Amino acid sequence: LIVLPLYPQFSCSTVAAVWDGLYSAFKTARTLPDINFIRDYAEHPAYIAALKASVERSFAAHGQPDLLVLSYHGIPQRFAREGDDYPLRCADTTALLQQALGLRDDQIMMTFQSRFGREPWLQPYTDETMQGLAKKGVKHVQVMSPGFASDCLETLEEINEQNREFFLHGGGEKFEYIPALNADAAHIEMMVQLVNARR
Questions:
Q1: Cys-Cys crosslink for 133: which of 22, 30, 53, 138, Cβ 3.0 to 4.6 Å?
Q2: What is the model's pLDDT at position 185?
Q3: Integer angstrom CA distances of residue 183 from 23, 79, 112, 191
Q4: What is each CA distance from 16 to 8, 13, 74, 144, 178, in whole angstroms?
């Protein structure tokens, strides 16, 4: 059995929950298959290449922005203090994509979205960042959420609607959302490579 959770960057709140579900499904079984669990693919070359191609398509269609923002789903800072390496995996993806695109440090930024509750979450927060970018001279921003294999309410509504509004009302002039990889052929091929490598 090969298990591929569609979370590119490991977190105890996502990938580990899949592991828990797998355990629950087999806990009463009298026999078990060999299990090959793919922890994450934050640095996989085909994943980085698919992200790069997606960004380049957006740049070609809308022009190169002042800033490319990579907005990842947030987790409480407490999780990271307790050993969750999720922020490091997000940083790995960001660094490799920056390198692949040839962007300077001031042309790309990593933020975290979707926080709730009262305790501190990973920062910088996407919404607060969007509200303040124009004051720093950023007029054109493009945003993608590399931690999502497919688009959902958190990308289509929270990023493409709410954060677009934050940026434009804050004085920004142009906001483009770069869709998740979804059913893109390069994304599917990456999954094929991940699975075939474990067969």
A1: 138
A2: 97
A3: 29, 31, 24, 11
A4: 13, 6, 16, 24, 28
- Residue identified by tokens 């709140």 is 13
Position 24 scores a pLDDT of 96
Counting as low any pLDDT under 70, the low residues of the chain are none
pLDDT at 154: 94
Instruction: Give the H or E element holding residue 23.
Output: helix 15-26
Give the Cα separation of 41 and 46 in Å (integer).
9
Q: Which residues of 167-184 are buried (b: 16+ CB within 10 A; e: fewer)?
A: beeeebeebbbbbbbeee
pLDDT at residue 61, rounded to an integer: 98
Quote the tokens at residue 3.
């298990």
- The C-alpha atoms of residue 152 and residue 177 are separated, in whole angstroms, by 13
147: nearest Cα among 76, 87, 57, 78:
87
- Residue 147 near residue 181 (C-beta atoms within 8 A): no
Global pTM?
Answer: 0.96
Average model confidence (pLDDT) across the chain: 97
Q: Where would I find the H helices in 27-170?
A: 45-62, 77-81, 86-101, 126-132, 153, 164-169
